[in-house]
Design a protein that fits this description.
Number of strands: 0
Strand content: under 5%
Distance between the termini: 40 Å
Helix content: 40-55%
Oligomer: single chain
Region (Disordered): 95-125
Length: 147
């Protein structure tokens, strides 16, 4: 895949396949036991939105009142405290979302683009992506701060 992408980086099909492969690799690596230490940095953001399918994947059961709140806002109610396993599952589900910069009004291939609230890099779990990617790729990371 890397050779095909390098040979023709402008081919949308190859680019989509490469991005999907990277996204899937990162999502599954997050759930790997060797990356348990990264989970300390995995905090859900109060503004994170999820689909019902993502909650089902994470095996999160809501009360009737919590479900009504979720159905209205698409966010996990503040009264829900996911277990570490559920947090990982939600992050894996969110990382499995399409990587897309912004939705477009019309998608030429006929599929709907991801709305802004449902993009792969737009959720609390994305905070661990740099460290996770560095680990998966076997490369060091240098964190640069303003100091």
């Amino acid at each position: 895949l890397a050779d095909r992408f390098t040979a023709d980086p402008g081919d949308p099909a190859v680019t989509r396949e490469a991005v999907d492969a990277a996204r899937n690799r990162l999502a599954w690596a997050l759930g790997d036991e060797s990356n348990q230490d990264l989970l300390d940095g995995l905090a859900l953001d109060a503004a994170d939105t999820f689909t019902q399918a993502e909650l089902d994947y994470a095996e999160i059961d809501l009360t009737v009142a919590q479900q009504a709140e979720f159905d209205t806002f698409g966010r996990l109610p503040q009264t829900v405290w996911p277990s570490p396993e559920q947090r990982v599952a939600l992050a894996m589900a969110a990382l499995s979302r399409p990587f897309t910069a912004e939705p477009t009004p019309a998608d030429p291939d006929g599929s709907d683009p991801a709305p802004p609230a449902r993009r792969a890099g737009d959720h609390g779990g994305a905070d661990v992506l740099p460290a996770l990617a560095a680990r998966v790729l076997g490369t060091p990371v240098t964190v640069v701060t303003g100091e």
